[in-house]
Amino acid sequence: MTNCLPLLGVGRNISAGDSPSSISNLEIWLQSGVGYYTDAGITPAVNNDLVYQWNDSSGNARHVTQTTSADRPVLLTNTLNGEDVLSFSTSGEFFNVPTSISGFSAGDVYIVVKIAQDPPGNTGYTGLWTFTSSSDNTHYCWTDGNIYEGFGSTTRVTVGDPTPSLTSYRLYNVSSASSDYKVYLDGTNIYTSGSNTVGWASTPYLGQGFISGAPFPGPYFLVGEIAEFFIYSKILNSTERTLIKNYISSKFGLTIA
Questions:
Q1: Over residues 237-249, mean pLDDT
Q2: In whole angstroms, what is the distance from residue 73 CA to residue 251 CA?
Q3: Quick one: which of 41, 107, 208, 248 could link to 152 by a disulfide (CB 3.0–4.6 Å)?
């Protein structure tokens, strides 16, 4: 029998076999409701606090941080199905991600996110993250409504303009492996390519796109909210993907295909 363990930050009992940590190769897990600090891991943040550090729940201690007060997102508790989110505004908040999130032969990223305006009215408010070795930034989405994605790749692809509005919370997922690149929104595949070379940013960020030395380096900031974020250093199989979709659907009350 599987033991039912209460996981911090989850508003119900979730079996230990039903969480992201039950799948191998989990490299970083920023879990809603867990590990928000106003400093370097000592003082827990409460509602409306600026968050200095969001602790990694994967066991790898890859905590994301922001030492500059003006660049820290705001914690909003009990926001999405009773769960917490972090709010990123037009002031330009973001986290620095440990550089050890690189060098993997494959990567599968999951994020629960929404943006304030779809499409954004300002090109500076089109960012999401920096996890590419391309000279082109990720945009979720650009002012033309299209998603442009480069997670874990040497090139950026045009995903297209998804039908559901990105101003609602969505499960956004990108998988990158050699000769295999896929993008999903709420569990539905919205982009597939059999041409891909895996590549990673030397300086990764969450909440902004910035590539030093690029023709258009940025920064491009996320204006919206993030509830949860995790990366695997492999491509999840169908059984594992179903587990993740069930976890996100149950925790956040989202409809996932």
A1: 97
A2: 22
A3: 107
pLDDT single digits (tens) 80-129: 999 999 999 999 999 999 999 989 999 999 999 999 999 999 999 999 99
Residue 81's nearest CA partner among 149, 25, 9 is: 9
| Amino acid at the residue 180 | D
Look up tokens 């009773």; give the residue. Answer: 82
The verdict on residue 114 lying in a domain is yes
Residue 5 lies in a domain: no
Residue 105 lies in a domain: yes
Domain that holds residue 238: 24-252
Q: Which SS3 state, helix, strand or coil, does residue 232 take?
A: strand
- The verdict on residue 19 lying in a domain is no
Q: pLDDT per residue over 18-56, tens digit each?
A: 899 999 999 999 999 999 999 999 999 999 999 999 999
Using alpha carbons, list the distances in angstroms from residue 252 to 10, 78, 84, 256: 9, 11, 10, 11
Maximal CA-CA distance, the chain: 56
Give the number of domains in the chain. 1
